[in-house]
Specification:
heterodimer, A: alpha/beta, Rossmann fold, putative n-type atp pyrophosphatase, domain 2, 5-stranded parallel β-sheet, 6 helices, 30% strand, B: alpha/beta, globular
Chain lengths: 226, 187
């Protein structure tokens, strides 16, 4: 079955992509670039790097822009999916939804309206097991946004490795964050995956941070051989 | 051993991760060993040595199981508690002589428990996650234990511990699955 993967550039969409590749044909990625940092549906920090990731993975990309206004942005997502159906003949959509009923419900409705399959292979997955699988299976990712206590500025750009995972687990207990960032506590960017043909190197970036909220804005990145 | 039956169109599909794995996690956390089996592998004689059987849901577009429903006929004679979730409820409905009709619900929905039930508790209203295209017209004599504005949300066999829920209890309503697990414990 030909599938399109909704891709924000973060860990969940890329891990879901890897799962989908093992069982079906991933024909394209679908990315929605929101102009609204507070988009309800679409992760925004560094979503402009999805084209570079797509190139690294060797998967075609369909991109549309949205103003990011609640509910209206769903029409833009539907437009992107219809474009992917037309260009690549996809029969279904894959998302990296973990627990967000808000997101899952809306994608399910769009897929139903368009007669497409909808797959959420990480749905209600065990957070600990998932994070272990993620960092143990060749994914390289960094934190590109923090949006809650106790994250300090030093977390921006930090790789999620075993040491970082241990810190995140500690924060789950001390500050009640969700381990996966599902509560919006942090956002990630994937720099490498086991199925990437090249990996991403960040050449220029700057941080914006105040009061436990901040983003790593990446202005230049490029692909290098693995 | 609680057996989790995957009703999706093929064994090991992406649906398994979405509809079987979350139920497995609740069953395991409740302290019960479980085994997954695809519906195409259920023997005609039924699943032997099961303490309980859960028929799990499928993707919205996946109704392949309805075309091969005779393969699940052994559910009629199961000696253990049986729970059908969404597509699983539809399968139970068909196996016991009920019918399906088109009726979709997607997203969080108000569920009204209409009579006391071992899995749902006392009459009340709660919200639950729904992803379905069809609804059940229950087999004759079955008890309807919960409804939404759209359709029957839960039913059970009049004499045996065979249950169906149209909503997905593995999303925000783990207690329903945990209560089912308790029913499966041998005295």
């Amino acid at each position: 079955m030909k599938l399109g993967v909704l891709c924000s550039g973060g860990k969940d969409s890329w891990f879901a992509c890897g799962l989908a590749q093992k069982k079906e044909e991933v024909a394209c990625l679908i990315s929605v670039r929101s102009k609204n940092d507070a988009s309800y549906m679409f992760h925004t920090p560094n979503v402009h790097l999805v084209p570079l990731q797509a190139k690294a993975a060797g998967i075609p990309l369909v991109t549309v822009e949205t103003e990011g206004i609640e509910e209206a942005e769903l029409a833009d997502l539907s437009r992107a999916i219809r474009l992917a159906v037309k260009q690549f003949g996809i029969e279904g959509i894959v998302t990296g939804a973990l627990m967000s009923v808000y997101q899952a419900t809306r994608v399910q409705r769009i897929c139903r309206d368009l007669g497409l399959w909808c797959f959420n292979p990480l749905w209600y997955t065990d957070p600990n097991a998932y994070m272990e699988r993620l960092i143990g299976s060749g994914f390289s990712l960094i934190i590109t946004g923090v949006f809650s206590a106790p994250f300090t500025k030093e977390w921006l750009g930090r790789a999620i490795d075993r040491e970082a995972l241990a810190d995140l687990r500690r924060y789950v207990k001390t500050d009640r964050i969700t381990l996966t960032g599902e509560g919006g506590e942090y956002e990630t960017l994937v720099l490498d995956a086991p199925f990437f043909r090249q990996r991403i190197i960040i050449r220029e970036s700057e941080t914006e941070y105040a009061n436990y909220r901040g983003v790593l804005r990446i202005s230049r990145a490029e692909l290098v051989p693995k | 051993m609680i057996h989790l039956v995957d009703l999706s169109w093929k064994a090991g599909s992406l649906c398994r991760d979405e509809y079987v794995a979350p139920v497995a996690r609740i069953v395991s956390a409740a302290g019960h060993p479980y085994r997954e089996i695809h519906f195409s592998e259920v023997p005609p004689s039924g699943i032997a040595d099961a303490d309980g059987i859960v028929l799990c849901g499928t993707a919205l577009k996946d109704n392949a199981f309805t075309e091969k429903i005779q393969g699940l006929a052994s559910i009629r004679d199961a000696k253990c508690p049986v729970l059908g979730i969404c597509a699983g409820m539809e399968a139970i409905c068909l196996v016991f002589g009920g019918r399906l009709r088109l009726a979709a619900e997607i997203g969080m929905t108000d569920i009204r428990v209409t009579q006391p039930d071992p899995l749902l508790g006392e009459p009340k209203t709660f919200t639950a996650y729904e992803v379905h295209s069809f609804a059940c017209e229950p087999p004759a004599g079955w008890l309807v234990t919960a409804v939404s504005d759209t359709c029957v949300q839960a039913f059970r066999h009049p004499d045996r511990p065979v249950f169906g829920v149209m909503f997905h209890p593995e999303v925000r309503n783990d207690l329903v699955v945990e209560r089912f697990c308790r029913l499966c414990m041998k005295p």
